[in-house]
Amino acid sequence: KYMRKSADHGKVEAMDQVARMLMNGVGCEADAAAALGYFKKAADSGYPKSLIAYGWMLADGIGVEKKDLVEAENYLKKAADEFKTIDAFHAYSRFLKQNGRQKESLEYLKKAADLEDAESMYMYSKEIQKDNKEESWKFLKKAAEKDYPYALNDYAASLIETDPGTAAKCLKKGADMGNNGAMFNYALLLS
User: What is the Cα–Cα distance from 191 to 185, expressed in whole angstroms?
Assistant: First the structure.
């Protein structure tokens, strides 16, 4: 009740929160169209999370009669270009990839990786590994050095022949962090 009043009085964070509550039916009946309206108000006020949410709702056709990929791209690109957050870069990169624009998608994924985010480094490494092995390995190594569990497992696999000691340390660390692949590979290494 009060969150909606706050939103209706122009509090941007409240608009975003009400939209999320409406999407999930928290404290109210789920209503995607009403959620879309609140996300749009917050997005048009420049709230980064709402720019992303509104863009994806348009792209997925949620709360609207039909998808609007042009408008979705406008909002997702604005979030990425103006706010330069990892979430915004990921969202726009994913949108571009889903719409067959791989080269542009990689550019935005790399922007997220360049923010020293381990998950982004790993994702970028996986996306470019066929076309640019050296660059891929560099980002995989950086993600492993930041203890990203999937990167630890994959990095260890690349070292098993040349540096088994480091590979074992990476696998153990990944296994201790709960990565199933690292658990399996570490167990194989110990057997």
Answer: 10
The type of residue at 159 is L
Which residues, in sequence order, are CB contacts of 8 under 8 Å at separation 6+? none
pLDDT in tens, 16-61: 999 999 999 998 899 999 999 999 999 999 999 999 999 999 999 9
Q: Determine contact, residues 179/150, Cβ cutoff 8 Å.
A: yes
DSSP-based three-state secondary structure for 179: coil
- How far apart are the C-alpha atoms of 166 and 45, rounded to whole Å? 49
Q: How far apart are CA 191 and CA 188, in angstroms?
A: 5
How far is residue 148 from each of residues 5, 35, 89, 113, 114, measured CA to CA in Å?
42, 34, 19, 13, 15
Are the CB atoms for 103 and 129 separated by under 8 Å?
Answer: no
Q: CB–CB of 45/61 below 8 Å?
A: no
Residue 187 DSSP symbol: H
Residue 122 tokens, joined: 């790993």
